[in-house]
Design a protein that fits this description.
Structural class: alpha/beta
CATH architecture: 2-Layer Sandwich
CATH superfamily: STAS domain
Shape: globular
Number of domains: 1
Oligomer: single chain
Distance between the termini: 32 Å
CATH class: Alpha Beta
Strand content: 25-35%
Largest sheet: 5 strands, mixed
Helix content: 40-55%
Amino acid sequence: MELTNSEHGGVTVIAVKGSIDSLNADQLTRAFARPVAQGQVMLVADFAAVTYTSSAGLRSLLAAVKDCRQHGGDLRIAAPQAQVQRVLSISGFAGIIQIFADREAALDSFRAAA
């Protein structure tokens, strides 16, 4: 799994590439926690290049969204591939975390809320 962070008008985008599983989910959890600890509580998880997520990845997402919301922000998911979207839907995450077709739509959702 590869992670890349970028800033977009006060929103931190964490682009994830590869598979998320029990071997690397802690790395993802830390990647989400770092910006929140620095007061950057509006996050987008860009999943365009995520090919698989296990329940460990879902736990990482849940921890991140809770952390963001406790600090007045939120986590949004952008561009999940069909198989990952299916996992998010079946697990009920589509009702917990807002999911957008692409990164720009996720970023726009924060702008619209401001």
